[in-house]
Amino acid sequence: MRIHHVALAAAMLAGAACSSPTTMTSGTTGPYAIAVFNGSGQTASASATLVTPLTVVVTGASGVPASEIQVTWTVVSGGGTVLPATSTTDASGHASTVFTLGATVGAQSVRAVVVTNGTDTATFAATATTVAPIGPRLITSVPTPTGATYDHDTFVRDGLAFACMWNVGVRIYDVGNGMKGGSPATPVLVSQIITSANGLSSPSVHNAWWFHNPVTGQNKYLFVGQEGPGSVGSSSSGDIHIVDVSDLTNPVEVGFIHIAGAGTHNFWMDEANQTLYAAYYNAGVVKIDVSGTLSGDMSSRIVMQVHPGGAGNTYVWGVMLYNGTLYATDMKSGFWALDPNTLATKGGGNNVPERYGSDQWVSGQVAYSGTWGTRSVRGNAVKVWALDANGVPTLADSIIIPNITTVSDVAVTPDGKALVVTTEGGAGNGLYVYNRANPLKPTLAGSYLVSVGLHTGEVAVINGHTYVFAARDPGQQQMDIFDITGVVP
Q1: Which residues have a Cβ under 8 Å from the Cβ of 253 and sit 6 or more positions away?
Q2: What is the pLDDT of residue 489?
């Protein structure tokens, strides 16, 4: 996801202009006063993460909000955890943390203290009930190899995980296939390949799709997306690399697809018709014939492309083929429904004006799309869409996830029971699982917070268990594997 989102989000936030009340800074002499602002008095199941972050307001001697003041958070009773343990006040004097309750049933509490004072405190109360839900469990983490800059995305199929690790290429792990005796808890490396840079400074391996050619006797291919430098809304770079994986122990790059002045992003395959759909940022939605033998420059296999939002209003993030409709999320022009044969617009579009669009997933008569970064507001919303009989979306609701800037990936589990969301860009970084008992009104069933963002999350069922293969942001670059079986009964 894409085009170095964390860095871009930071740049956009830094450049945003806004009005705010006069504040005192860390250079102002104390003492400071601290008080509960929001989040006290919540009730949740034991060991659950509270929905509303704990927030204090810090003021200076004259009662004016104080910015850039460090606040430490300590669990006083109940045995829970806070993340982060130290936070800094913003221009409004607010600082926040997220409280995960301990296993102790009954009253629990957290204390906030101004670092420079050490005397004035604010105490938050919470109550843990008797029923502790089954939350997402981190069962293992696979570190990136030495020298790797990023673990970006994972494609999982037939018990094999294709981990896209940027400058060190694609690494194929047995996580239940049987080739090497691996499992989700103990992944075993099968092979790896570093695709060519094709004129860029790095292979920049972003995503992959393992294509099972339906024609007997024909080769199997791995399509690898390369994401080079770009500017949101106007430019992008990077090719689709074609790797022959007929022998998974010896993958070989055999071809590529190139569009001048544009770079690829996420894929979706119509395997029955041997067609690859690619989100191509400023080049729009691209349809590619991948039948038969693939070798060399396959750019002539591009069948058609469309700019859903029109010139200057197209920057496509992702595509998904479902029930005869091709869905596309465009960072600038929203959520679209397209005819997969002609790429003509069926409906939707220009329907998320306040945020950038990100990932999407469709299940039944409901679709979900994520949001990213900062447009006029933070990208902390999952948009919920009702689909009509022709698959055309209408906005039905939004799930707002606090303390993040980016909803990076969304997916529905194969049984349709759960919506899985990964997030980044704040204290709410992590994995969220929602109950889809009412698909138009998903409710939070469990979460797992991490100190840096989860950039992507791939859902897979292996040996009867449901897993999420997630990629952590730089700083802790690794592939995290979560078991979410039973989070939604």
Answers
A1: 193, 195, 196, 241, 242, 243, 244
A2: 87
